[in-house]
């Protein structure tokens, strides 16, 4: 029987279920035009202590403009790009990667001691198959370990001039820190990686502001206690039999979806929820992005999409736009569907970092993305509401962890004066 050329992929969005017509052709690598590498020029970094973005060479304004223009192009295209020379030192990344591997390679009982269910903010370990991000696919074949925003470690609120608002610090800490002491260096490496991602994100959010034709500081006031969810992920490898079989099918190209339906998805087809995601991935490959097929017309009411590989590029991080930024940009920037398949024998490791605005900052579509012909499509909403909303609309329930976490943050937020949101 002939393999069908298309299949339907079901997605969960703020608006409920959406469907895409997707080619069953094997995933091909993205071209440099589709997912470009944007050079942040070595010294683009955001120094929380001096609250300026520095660049060691060239004319900062011209360089910023050039980078912002490249970001705009990528954000309105695939919604994915790589950043090189991003300023996170290799030793910080390498240490985090090796500690993440050590954590996952421990006996299950050790990992269960820091189960995310026993943490009030849902931080810690999530076992294999505990998430099911896309109900029309398989459960997610991955283990995770997450660490959400903590004022105590935010470089913006440290140092001699720091003046953090005590009501903003949630009552709990990273409770797992006590339980991971058996892994020397784990806590330090995780904190350093999380801080580096946070600083880079505060730099990037300024470049995103410029890319939206807004003043560079536009989002500064609403990124003082931002959504900053670090995550280590381990996607277990295939057995040698499975790997051989998958390779055979791929080489022969006789099964158009290259054996994927025989293995579980690492993380199902989804979009990210906050503003943008930074992602370190190892060299396994397997991250796939759903793009309109070349030649498929945007005017077509049911365009064809295809899976395209975001090939690992050592030394870079992947950046992708998430739902909240798409919403704020009135759909000008794209939050693009992606998924992971680990089709290798060895485990695949990755480290996403999800960045969003302060949970209580209610944000409207930005003024540069509306005019008389393009009114705002969306009402103001806060980043803290997006996650629970998606769960509720799609599944009609909100996981208690999420609810508790959201409520705690909202309660804290209500007890202090509202920050000056610029939108
Ligand atoms: O592991 C990856 O490469 C991507 C993970 C991802 O998409 C996510 O956690 O949202
Ligand atoms: Fe994702």
UniProtKB/TrEMBL annotation:
User: Which Pfam families does the record associate with it?
Assistant: 2OG-FeII_Oxy, DIOX_N
Q: Which InterPro entries match?
A: DIOX_N, IPNS-like_FE2OG_OXY, IPNS-like_sf, Oxoglu/Fe-dep_dioxygenase_dom
Asked whether the UniProt record includes Metal-binding among its keywords, one would answer: yes
Report the residue ranges that make up the Fe2OG dioxygenase domain in this protein.
239-357
Q: What are the record keywords, sorted? A: Iron, Metal-binding, Oxidoreductase
Q: Which Gene3D superfamilies match?
A: B-lactam Antibiotic, Isopenicillin N Synthase, Chain
Query: What is the name listed in the Swiss-Prot or TrEMBL entry for this protein?
Result: Fe2OG dioxygenase domain-containing protein
Organism from which the protein derives: Sporothrix stenoceras
